[in-house]
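User: Predict the full complex structure for these chains.
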Amino acid sequence: MIRPGRSNDISEEELHAYVDEQLPEDRVCEVQEYLAAHPDAASRVAAWRLQKTKIHERYDPVLHEPISDRFCVDTILARTAGAWKKIAAAAVLAFALGAGAGWFGRDLSGFGRDTDAARALAEAAIEAHRMYVAEVRHPIEVRADEAHLVPWLSKRVGQQLKAPDLASEGLKLMGGRLLPGPNGPTALFMYQDAGGERVTLTTARSPSGDETSFQWRAEDKIGAVAWFERGLAFVVAGPAEHAKLNRVARRVYEAYEIADNAAGK
Amino acid sequence: MTAVRRGLQPLIPALRRFARALVRNSEGADDLVQDTIVRALRGEHLFQGGDLRTWLFTILLNLDRNRRRGLARKPFLAVIEDIDPPGDPAADGSGRDIERGLSLLPPEQREVLLLVTLEGLSYREAADAQGVPIGTVMSRLSRARTALRDYLDGELPPLREVGGSNTGRRA
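Assistant: Here is the predicted structure of the two-chain assembly.
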Protein backbone atom coordinates (compact mmCIF):
# COMPACT_ATOMS: atom_id res chain seq x y z
CA MET A 1 0.00 0.00 0.00
CA ILE A 2 2.68 2.42 0.97
CA ARG A 3 4.99 3.17 -1.90
CA PRO A 4 8.19 4.70 -0.58
CA GLY A 5 9.53 7.55 -2.62
CA ARG A 6 6.18 8.42 -4.14
CA SER A 7 5.90 11.89 -2.74
CA ASN A 8 2.37 12.49 -4.05
CA ASP A 9 1.17 9.89 -1.57
CA ILE A 10 1.55 12.36 1.27
CA SER A 11 -1.78 13.73 2.36
CA GLU A 12 -2.53 16.96 4.17
CA GLU A 13 -3.55 14.88 7.18
CA GLU A 14 -0.18 13.22 7.25
CA LEU A 15 1.50 16.61 7.33
CA HIS A 16 -0.53 17.49 10.40
CA ALA A 17 0.25 14.13 11.96
CA TYR A 18 3.94 14.75 11.26
CA VAL A 19 3.84 18.06 13.15
CA ASP A 20 1.82 16.49 15.96
CA GLU A 21 4.11 13.48 16.21
CA GLN A 22 1.23 11.16 15.49
CA LEU A 23 2.59 9.81 12.24
CA PRO A 24 3.41 6.09 12.10
CA GLU A 25 7.17 5.76 12.29
CA ASP A 26 7.45 4.11 8.89
CA ARG A 27 6.01 7.23 7.22
CA VAL A 28 8.32 9.80 8.78
CA CYS A 29 11.08 9.41 6.21
CA GLU A 30 8.68 9.70 3.32
CA VAL A 31 7.14 12.86 4.69
CA GLN A 32 10.61 14.33 5.16
CA GLU A 33 11.52 13.52 1.57
CA TYR A 34 8.28 15.05 0.38
CA LEU A 35 8.95 18.22 2.35
CA ALA A 36 12.44 18.50 0.90
CA ALA A 37 10.93 18.43 -2.57
CA HIS A 38 7.97 20.71 -1.85
CA PRO A 39 8.99 24.05 -0.36
CA ASP A 40 5.37 25.12 -0.19
CA ALA A 41 4.39 22.26 2.08
CA ALA A 42 7.62 22.70 4.01
CA SER A 43 6.81 26.32 4.76
CA ARG A 44 3.33 25.36 5.94
CA VAL A 45 4.77 22.74 8.24
CA ALA A 46 7.31 25.23 9.54
CA ALA A 47 4.53 27.73 10.23
CA TRP A 48 2.49 25.13 12.13
CA ARG A 49 5.52 24.22 14.20
CA LEU A 50 6.12 27.86 15.01
CA GLN A 51 2.50 28.14 16.16
CA LYS A 52 3.01 25.18 18.42
CA THR A 53 6.16 26.68 19.92
CA LYS A 54 4.45 30.01 20.51
CA ILE A 55 1.45 28.36 22.16
CA HIS A 56 3.71 26.43 24.52
CA GLU A 57 5.86 29.48 25.30
CA ARG A 58 2.78 31.48 26.11
CA TYR A 59 0.89 28.93 28.25
CA ASP A 60 3.41 26.48 29.71
CA PRO A 61 4.29 28.87 32.54
CA VAL A 62 0.77 28.23 33.91
CA LEU A 63 1.89 24.68 34.72
CA HIS A 64 4.36 26.01 37.27
CA GLU A 65 2.06 28.46 39.02
CA PRO A 66 1.32 27.51 42.62
CA ILE A 67 -1.94 25.59 42.91
CA SER A 68 -4.38 27.29 45.21
CA ASP A 69 -6.50 25.44 47.75
CA ARG A 70 -9.55 25.84 45.63
CA PHE A 71 -8.22 23.12 43.32
CA CYS A 72 -7.48 20.62 46.05
CA VAL A 73 -9.75 17.60 45.63
CA ASP A 74 -9.88 16.93 49.38
CA THR A 75 -10.77 20.55 50.13
CA ILE A 76 -13.56 20.52 47.58
CA LEU A 77 -14.98 17.29 48.97
CA ALA A 78 -14.79 18.53 52.55
CA ARG A 79 -16.36 21.86 51.70
CA THR A 80 -19.25 20.27 49.85
CA ALA A 81 -19.97 17.91 52.73
CA GLY A 82 -19.66 20.63 55.37
CA ALA A 83 -21.91 23.00 53.49
CA TRP A 84 -24.73 20.51 53.48
CA LYS A 85 -26.57 21.79 56.55
CA LYS A 86 -26.23 25.40 55.45
CA ILE A 87 -27.51 24.56 52.00
CA ALA A 88 -30.56 22.81 53.39
CA ALA A 89 -31.31 25.80 55.62
CA ALA A 90 -30.87 28.20 52.74
CA ALA A 91 -33.23 26.17 50.59
CA VAL A 92 -35.94 26.45 53.22
CA LEU A 93 -35.35 30.18 53.39
CA ALA A 94 -35.51 30.55 49.61
CA PHE A 95 -38.82 28.76 49.52
CA ALA A 96 -40.14 30.90 52.37
CA LEU A 97 -39.08 34.10 50.57
CA GLY A 98 -40.66 32.82 47.40
CA ALA A 99 -43.94 32.49 49.32
CA GLY A 100 -44.11 36.24 49.85
CA ALA A 101 -43.81 36.83 46.15
CA GLY A 102 -46.63 34.49 45.27
CA TRP A 103 -44.70 31.24 45.27
CA PHE A 104 -46.82 28.46 43.90
CA GLY A 105 -49.59 30.83 43.08
CA ARG A 106 -50.70 31.55 46.61
CA ASP A 107 -51.60 35.10 45.62
CA LEU A 108 -53.06 34.06 42.35
CA SER A 109 -56.30 35.97 42.02
CA GLY A 110 -56.72 35.96 38.29
CA PHE A 111 -54.98 35.45 35.04
CA GLY A 112 -53.21 38.77 35.42
CA ARG A 113 -51.17 37.31 38.22
CA ASP A 114 -50.20 34.15 36.44
CA THR A 115 -47.00 35.50 35.03
CA ASP A 116 -45.86 36.91 38.36
CA ALA A 117 -46.69 33.71 40.16
CA ALA A 118 -44.95 31.58 37.58
CA ARG A 119 -41.94 33.86 37.73
CA ALA A 120 -41.70 33.62 41.50
CA LEU A 121 -42.18 29.91 41.27
CA ALA A 122 -39.43 29.58 38.70
CA GLU A 123 -37.06 31.71 40.76
CA ALA A 124 -37.51 29.54 43.81
CA ALA A 125 -37.16 26.36 41.79
CA ILE A 126 -33.99 27.73 40.18
CA GLU A 127 -32.65 28.35 43.67
CA ALA A 128 -33.49 24.81 44.76
CA HIS A 129 -32.00 23.48 41.54
CA ARG A 130 -28.79 25.42 42.12
CA MET A 131 -28.43 24.07 45.63
CA TYR A 132 -29.23 20.44 45.11
CA VAL A 133 -27.59 20.04 41.75
CA ALA A 134 -24.29 21.27 43.18
CA GLU A 135 -24.54 18.64 45.88
CA VAL A 136 -21.90 15.96 45.40
CA ARG A 137 -22.86 13.48 48.07
CA HIS A 138 -26.56 13.88 48.72
CA PRO A 139 -28.30 15.29 45.66
CA ILE A 140 -31.35 13.14 46.33
CA GLU A 141 -33.04 11.47 49.29
CA VAL A 142 -34.58 8.48 47.57
CA ARG A 143 -33.04 6.80 44.57
CA ALA A 144 -34.95 6.15 41.35
CA ASP A 145 -34.70 2.38 41.79
CA GLU A 146 -36.58 2.47 45.08
CA ALA A 147 -40.15 1.55 44.26
CA HIS A 148 -41.66 3.88 46.83
CA LEU A 149 -40.17 7.07 45.31
CA VAL A 150 -43.20 8.20 43.28
CA PRO A 151 -45.91 6.86 45.65
CA TRP A 152 -44.19 8.52 48.60
CA LEU A 153 -43.83 11.94 46.95
CA SER A 154 -47.38 11.70 45.52
CA LYS A 155 -48.74 10.97 48.97
CA ARG A 156 -46.87 13.88 50.55
CA VAL A 157 -47.81 16.38 47.82
CA GLY A 158 -51.38 15.11 47.88
CA GLN A 159 -51.81 14.35 44.20
CA GLN A 160 -50.75 11.57 41.90
CA LEU A 161 -47.33 12.59 40.56
CA LYS A 162 -45.21 11.12 37.82
CA ALA A 163 -41.50 10.92 37.23
CA PRO A 164 -41.70 11.04 33.42
CA ASP A 165 -39.32 9.04 31.29
CA LEU A 166 -37.00 11.60 29.71
CA ALA A 167 -34.72 9.14 27.90
CA SER A 168 -35.62 10.87 24.61
CA GLU A 169 -33.77 13.92 25.97
CA GLY A 170 -30.86 11.79 27.16
CA LEU A 171 -31.92 12.19 30.77
CA LYS A 172 -32.05 9.43 33.33
CA LEU A 173 -33.94 9.69 36.61
CA MET A 174 -31.58 9.74 39.59
CA GLY A 175 -34.22 10.01 42.27
CA GLY A 176 -36.08 12.60 44.25
CA ARG A 177 -36.46 14.51 47.45
CA LEU A 178 -39.16 16.21 49.44
CA LEU A 179 -38.87 19.96 50.03
CA PRO A 180 -40.81 22.28 52.28
CA GLY A 181 -43.01 24.76 50.43
CA PRO A 182 -45.47 27.47 51.42
CA ASN A 183 -48.35 25.41 50.09
CA GLY A 184 -47.12 22.27 51.70
CA PRO A 185 -44.79 19.53 50.58
CA THR A 186 -43.03 19.91 47.27
CA ALA A 187 -41.51 17.13 45.19
CA LEU A 188 -38.19 17.45 43.38
CA PHE A 189 -37.16 14.84 40.82
CA MET A 190 -33.59 14.96 39.61
CA TYR A 191 -32.40 13.73 36.22
CA GLN A 192 -28.91 13.45 34.83
CA ASP A 193 -27.48 12.96 31.35
CA ALA A 194 -24.41 10.96 30.34
CA GLY A 195 -22.20 14.03 30.69
CA GLY A 196 -23.34 14.66 34.27
CA GLU A 197 -25.59 17.60 33.34
CA ARG A 198 -28.56 17.73 35.71
CA VAL A 199 -32.16 18.79 35.24
CA THR A 200 -34.75 18.99 38.02
CA LEU A 201 -38.52 18.78 37.89
CA THR A 202 -40.20 20.48 40.84
CA THR A 203 -43.88 19.84 41.44
CA ALA A 204 -46.28 21.08 44.12
CA ARG A 205 -49.98 21.68 44.47
CA SER A 206 -51.30 24.92 43.14
CA PRO A 207 -54.19 26.28 45.20
CA SER A 208 -55.86 27.76 42.16
CA GLY A 209 -57.14 25.71 39.28
CA ASP A 210 -55.72 28.14 36.76
CA GLU A 211 -53.64 26.96 33.87
CA THR A 212 -50.81 28.84 32.23
CA SER A 213 -48.61 28.40 29.22
CA PHE A 214 -44.89 27.72 29.62
CA GLN A 215 -43.06 30.62 31.25
CA TRP A 216 -39.33 30.92 30.70
CA ARG A 217 -36.91 32.39 33.17
CA ALA A 218 -33.10 32.34 33.32
CA GLU A 219 -30.75 33.44 36.03
CA ASP A 220 -27.02 33.29 35.66
CA LYS A 221 -26.41 29.91 34.01
CA ILE A 222 -29.63 28.26 35.11
CA GLY A 223 -32.91 28.38 33.27
CA ALA A 224 -36.40 27.26 34.16
CA VAL A 225 -39.68 26.56 32.40
CA ALA A 226 -42.69 26.92 34.69
CA TRP A 227 -46.38 26.25 34.17
CA PHE A 228 -49.59 25.55 36.06
CA GLU A 229 -51.77 22.70 35.02
CA ARG A 230 -54.44 20.44 36.57
CA GLY A 231 -54.02 21.90 40.05
CA LEU A 232 -50.27 21.44 40.04
CA ALA A 233 -47.37 23.83 39.58
CA PHE A 234 -44.45 22.51 37.54
CA VAL A 235 -40.94 23.85 37.10
CA VAL A 236 -38.28 22.25 34.92
CA ALA A 237 -34.87 23.73 35.75
CA GLY A 238 -31.48 23.06 34.24
CA PRO A 239 -28.62 24.63 32.27
CA ALA A 240 -29.96 27.76 30.56
CA GLU A 241 -30.77 26.26 27.18
CA HIS A 242 -34.23 27.40 26.31
CA ALA A 243 -34.91 24.91 23.52
CA LYS A 244 -33.74 21.90 25.48
CA LEU A 245 -35.66 22.75 28.65
CA ASN A 246 -38.74 23.50 26.58
CA ARG A 247 -38.52 20.02 25.08
CA VAL A 248 -38.16 18.51 28.54
CA ALA A 249 -41.16 20.52 29.77
CA ARG A 250 -43.18 19.28 26.82
CA ARG A 251 -42.29 15.67 27.63
CA VAL A 252 -43.41 16.21 31.23
CA TYR A 253 -46.61 17.85 30.08
CA GLU A 254 -47.30 14.98 27.67
CA ALA A 255 -46.58 12.37 30.32
CA TYR A 256 -49.28 13.84 32.54
CA GLU A 257 -51.67 14.20 29.63
CA ILE A 258 -51.21 10.56 28.60
CA ALA A 259 -51.82 9.46 32.18
CA ASP A 260 -55.04 11.48 32.25
CA ASN A 261 -56.24 10.13 28.93
CA ALA A 262 -55.54 6.61 30.09
CA ALA A 263 -57.62 7.31 33.19
CA GLY A 264 -60.48 8.45 30.94
CA LYS A 265 -60.50 12.07 32.11
CA MET B 1 -10.18 6.45 47.08
CA THR B 2 -11.67 6.17 43.64
CA ALA B 3 -9.80 6.25 40.33
CA VAL B 4 -11.19 9.70 39.60
CA ARG B 5 -10.09 11.19 42.94
CA ARG B 6 -6.66 9.62 42.69
CA GLY B 7 -6.09 10.64 39.11
CA LEU B 8 -7.55 14.13 39.26
CA GLN B 9 -5.07 16.04 41.35
CA PRO B 10 -1.96 15.51 39.15
CA LEU B 11 -3.94 16.64 36.09
CA ILE B 12 -4.94 20.01 37.50
CA PRO B 13 -1.90 21.98 36.22
CA ALA B 14 -2.66 20.81 32.68
CA LEU B 15 -6.37 21.62 33.08
CA ARG B 16 -5.44 25.12 34.21
CA ARG B 17 -3.05 25.62 31.31
CA PHE B 18 -5.67 24.47 28.83
CA ALA B 19 -8.43 26.59 30.36
CA ARG B 20 -6.20 29.67 30.37
CA ALA B 21 -5.49 29.29 26.67
CA LEU B 22 -9.13 28.56 25.94
CA VAL B 23 -10.75 31.53 27.66
CA ARG B 24 -7.86 34.03 28.09
CA ASN B 25 -9.34 35.63 31.17
CA SER B 26 -7.46 33.96 34.04
CA GLU B 27 -10.21 34.25 36.62
CA GLY B 28 -12.74 32.77 34.23
CA ALA B 29 -10.28 29.99 33.40
CA ASP B 30 -9.79 29.05 37.04
CA ASP B 31 -13.54 29.09 37.64
CA LEU B 32 -13.88 26.72 34.72
CA VAL B 33 -11.28 24.35 36.17
CA GLN B 34 -12.90 24.40 39.59
CA ASP B 35 -16.33 23.70 38.07
CA THR B 36 -14.74 20.84 36.12
CA ILE B 37 -13.36 19.30 39.31
CA VAL B 38 -16.68 19.61 41.12
CA ARG B 39 -18.51 18.13 38.16
CA ALA B 40 -16.02 15.27 37.87
CA LEU B 41 -16.31 14.41 41.57
CA ARG B 42 -20.06 14.60 41.42
CA GLY B 43 -20.18 12.34 38.40
CA GLU B 44 -17.31 10.03 39.23
CA HIS B 45 -19.60 7.02 38.88
CA LEU B 46 -20.07 8.07 35.24
CA PHE B 47 -16.39 7.57 34.47
CA GLN B 48 -16.24 4.21 32.72
CA GLY B 49 -12.50 3.78 32.77
CA GLY B 50 -10.50 4.82 29.74
CA ASP B 51 -8.51 8.00 29.69
CA LEU B 52 -9.32 10.22 32.66
CA ARG B 53 -7.66 13.24 31.07
CA THR B 54 -9.86 13.02 27.96
CA TRP B 55 -12.95 12.68 30.15
CA LEU B 56 -11.97 15.78 32.14
CA PHE B 57 -11.43 17.78 28.95
CA THR B 58 -14.89 16.64 27.79
CA ILE B 59 -16.43 18.03 30.97
CA LEU B 60 -14.43 21.24 30.73
CA LEU B 61 -15.46 21.83 27.10
CA ASN B 62 -19.13 21.25 27.95
CA LEU B 63 -18.95 23.71 30.81
CA ASP B 64 -17.21 26.23 28.60
CA ARG B 65 -19.96 25.93 25.99
CA ASN B 66 -22.55 26.60 28.68
CA ARG B 67 -20.49 29.55 29.85
CA ARG B 68 -20.31 31.00 26.36
CA ARG B 69 -24.03 30.64 25.89
CA GLY B 70 -24.42 32.64 29.11
CA LEU B 71 -22.03 35.32 27.85
CA ALA B 72 -23.88 35.56 24.56
CA ARG B 73 -26.91 36.73 26.48
CA LYS B 74 -24.80 39.29 28.32
CA PRO B 75 -22.66 40.79 25.57
CA PHE B 76 -21.27 43.39 27.94
CA LEU B 77 -19.39 40.69 29.79
CA ALA B 78 -17.82 39.37 26.62
CA VAL B 79 -15.81 42.55 26.28
CA ILE B 80 -13.96 41.86 29.50
CA GLU B 81 -12.22 38.93 27.88
CA ASP B 82 -10.45 41.31 25.55
CA ILE B 83 -8.76 43.26 28.28
CA ASP B 84 -5.22 42.24 29.16
CA PRO B 85 -4.86 41.66 32.86
CA PRO B 86 -2.14 43.92 34.27
CA GLY B 87 1.15 42.14 34.80
CA ASP B 88 0.24 39.41 32.38
CA PRO B 89 3.39 38.38 30.49
CA ALA B 90 1.39 38.31 27.26
CA ALA B 91 0.67 42.02 27.47
CA ASP B 92 4.17 43.05 26.58
CA GLY B 93 5.80 39.88 25.27
CA SER B 94 5.50 38.03 22.02
CA GLY B 95 2.77 35.82 23.53
CA ARG B 96 0.38 38.63 22.72
CA ASP B 97 0.23 37.68 19.05
CA ILE B 98 -0.54 34.03 19.52
CA GLU B 99 -3.04 34.81 22.23
CA ARG B 100 -4.85 37.26 20.01
CA GLY B 101 -4.71 34.88 17.07
CA LEU B 102 -6.21 32.06 19.12
CA SER B 103 -8.99 34.28 20.40
CA LEU B 104 -10.05 35.06 16.85
CA LEU B 105 -10.60 31.41 15.94
CA PRO B 106 -14.08 29.90 16.14
CA PRO B 107 -14.31 28.13 19.52
CA GLU B 108 -14.41 24.58 18.13
CA GLN B 109 -11.24 25.21 16.09
CA ARG B 110 -9.48 26.77 19.07
CA GLU B 111 -10.49 23.75 21.17
CA VAL B 112 -9.01 21.26 18.74
CA LEU B 113 -5.80 23.17 18.18
CA LEU B 114 -5.19 23.47 21.92
CA LEU B 115 -6.12 19.87 22.72
CA VAL B 116 -3.69 18.62 20.09
CA THR B 117 -0.79 21.05 20.20
CA LEU B 118 -0.84 22.26 23.81
CA GLU B 119 -2.09 19.15 25.60
CA GLY B 120 -0.77 16.56 23.18
CA LEU B 121 -4.01 14.61 22.82
CA SER B 122 -4.17 12.12 19.97
CA TYR B 123 -6.66 12.90 17.21
CA ARG B 124 -8.83 10.09 18.55
CA GLU B 125 -8.82 11.56 22.06
CA ALA B 126 -9.56 15.04 20.74
CA ALA B 127 -12.50 13.60 18.78
CA ASP B 128 -13.80 11.92 21.95
CA ALA B 129 -13.40 15.10 23.98
CA GLN B 130 -15.33 17.13 21.42
CA GLY B 131 -17.84 14.39 20.72
CA VAL B 132 -17.27 14.51 16.96
CA PRO B 133 -15.85 12.12 14.31
CA ILE B 134 -12.11 12.13 13.78
CA GLY B 135 -12.56 13.63 10.29
CA THR B 136 -14.15 16.69 11.86
CA VAL B 137 -11.15 17.03 14.15
CA MET B 138 -8.81 16.94 11.16
CA SER B 139 -10.71 19.56 9.20
CA ARG B 140 -11.04 21.85 12.24
CA LEU B 141 -7.34 21.48 12.94
CA SER B 142 -6.48 22.29 9.35
CA ARG B 143 -8.73 25.37 9.28
CA ALA B 144 -7.38 26.54 12.62
CA ARG B 145 -3.78 26.30 11.46
CA THR B 146 -4.48 28.04 8.18
CA ALA B 147 -6.35 30.89 9.86
CA LEU B 148 -3.71 31.29 12.54
CA ARG B 149 -0.93 31.33 9.97
CA ASP B 150 -2.72 33.99 7.97
CA TYR B 151 -3.23 36.04 11.09
CA LEU B 152 0.36 35.73 12.29
CA ASP B 153 1.67 36.54 8.82
CA GLY B 154 -0.60 39.55 8.70
CA GLU B 155 -1.85 38.42 5.31
CA LEU B 156 -5.49 38.93 6.10
CA PRO B 157 -7.32 41.25 8.42
CA PRO B 158 -8.85 39.24 11.25
CA LEU B 159 -12.38 38.40 10.21
CA ARG B 160 -13.79 37.68 13.60
CA GLU B 161 -12.68 40.86 15.31
CA VAL B 162 -14.72 41.29 18.45
CA GLY B 163 -15.37 44.75 19.83
CA GLY B 164 -14.27 46.70 16.77
CA SER B 165 -11.55 49.15 17.70
CA ASN B 166 -10.94 47.56 21.07
CA THR B 167 -8.15 45.34 19.85
CA GLY B 168 -5.55 46.62 22.25
CA ARG B 169 -2.96 46.86 19.48
CA ARG B 170 -0.19 49.14 20.52
CA ALA B 171 2.02 51.22 18.28
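Chain A touches chain B through 48 residues (CB under 8 Å).
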